[in-house]
Amino acid sequence: MSIENPLWGAPRIHGELLKLGFEVAQSSVANAGNSGVAVDNTVAIGNDAEATQASAMALGSGARATADNSIALGSSSMANEVNTVSVGSVGNERRIVNVASGAVSSTRP
Hints:
Layout: H1 10-19, E1 36-37, E2 43-45, E3 50-51, E4 57-59, E5 64-65, E6 71-73, E7 78-79, E8 85-86
Parallel strand pairs: 1-3, 2-4, 3-5, 4-6, 5-7, 6-8
């Protein structure tokens, strides 16, 4: 939304998201001034969040996704390895809860 409308600030983007049915606090929406995306197909939401590599996503204040196809979830999370999901950082580890059991199949790689 901010790429198509580079003059829109966070308040305008927040209003447009509300119109589309997304319930988010205005402080949750940041444009490139506070959060940053360095390449196409990246997402950075949160104050000082950064997604700097192809297909990366950083969600949360200070979250960093610095490797291709990486996802950083939560405040100050760091995803710095290709094809990974991070929910914390060194010294700031988190638990993942309420996850269903996986399935193992001899016919699937």
